């Protein structure tokens, strides 16, 4: 992932250390659904010149329970060359009494990444504090001087669920003489408002009394609910490299010339790699062969060296060492394609399960991931270069349905990544089930997944056979398995599909009624629980379109016939369509089930309609079939 400046919730200025914070002063409205309450947060940003910026940070956070312990850890992220000073921490008990204080010397200085072995210029100072009881309050302040002025942070109330805020301010003082742009994004749901005051070259923004966003069913990402203010200087510096960002074109030219061109050189070894592949066929054939070769010889590892952690490793380094991060692997893949005479573009993206796009009208340094795009006559080819397992020309749910910044020699081109339709994001299951006289069932199943449903099954690639079986037992818990075995697992990296077979036996599937059996029409279905909420405060989001298609063939015991079966059913709503059909044959009962769900953000007023739709589906899945002995 791309390294970006992270100021965190605990950035605050030492001038505020003068009061205690008893928990009793927190209003009930802010305690509701909250694991932590931001009591007071203040950030003062002084831009002194193109290559000097000072942050004066203060934050007071009350931790109500253990779920927010990680949120309470005082930490400072920095780069080599930053100056950190005036570091102070005070811990208070529930009544606001001081328990302990800390200074800079009490912090551990570590590499700022948790992903194992990596190389990084990014560092973090972390205070190793373990609470003895709850609630408690952490008051934390420090100053930070930086030479990089491209990473101006957004001002938003908070970034996580179950965090509330009493008050927060963000003052930005521009002494540089450089034009400072800002843009306020209001909450689309009126959840909170941003206040602002201005005095000469100073602007101050405020939030106050914002309740926590509870992580309830299908609630959107807080970034889609809360307001924010974004900032960007027209001229900036990044590790001594000065540039303009008055437009995406200007920024793209700077990015291409300063970050990518210096690390785009090929080598005789890379030329030999391409020659050895003996490429032929269409552009798509060639790109696929190069991509799958690259996957076979590299692995992902976090690297945050270079210009502010944004410049990729040299392609020859990746070629020799066999590893890199998203920047280095994408740049290496781009160099291989260059050698094959195939143009491609380095594409910066916001990787997030809930799609977040760049503002085309407000250019600024942003993004947290890099992929590659290759234009062809048949359409764009998209490459995720950090996975050894993902299929060719397939993007996962964390990078689809949003825009990217494609860096070209002429500037940045804002492009849209693919968005999978429900038919493209599909599960197909074919089950053959033998009803046994002892109330058990023996079954065989064939399962296939594409689109986003391919992504959700990709994790099985690395599991042992035992772990695959255990995963199936847990996943399909609607059946009481006596045993289950996954077989013939195939990750088709050409077609972006995952297929596998299941052999299983489940107990107590049927109920006896004299000489008759009664059993559920759909053996494997969603075990989700849906509850109406008359007081829902926020909209709900179905993040993906998808389609599930099932065909279940029940083999009846000898001398049994279907005596009763449900009527065919159709449920239609604005959220999706569900069908369930039944067909009798001589010694079989065939059930066909299809559910097609639409993605979208829906108003809170429609939530109970959605719940009722899902409940009707679950009821239909649980409809019963009765078989009896022939008379």
UniProtKB/TrEMBL annotation:
<feature type="domain" description="DUF3857">
    <location>
        <begin position="55"/>
        <end position="205"/>
    </location>
</feature>
<protein>
    <recommendedName>
        <fullName>DUF3857 domain-containing protein</fullName>
    </recommendedName>
</protein>
<dbReference type="Pfam" id="PF12969">
    <property type="entry name" value="DUF3857"/>
</dbReference>
<feature type="signal peptide">
    <location>
        <begin position="1"/>
        <end position="20"/>
    </location>
</feature>
<dbReference type="InterPro" id="IPR038765">
    <property type="entry name" value="Papain-like_cys_pep_sf"/>
</dbReference>
<dbReference type="InterPro" id="IPR024618">
    <property type="entry name" value="DUF3857"/>
</dbReference>
<keyword id="KW-0732">Signal</keyword>
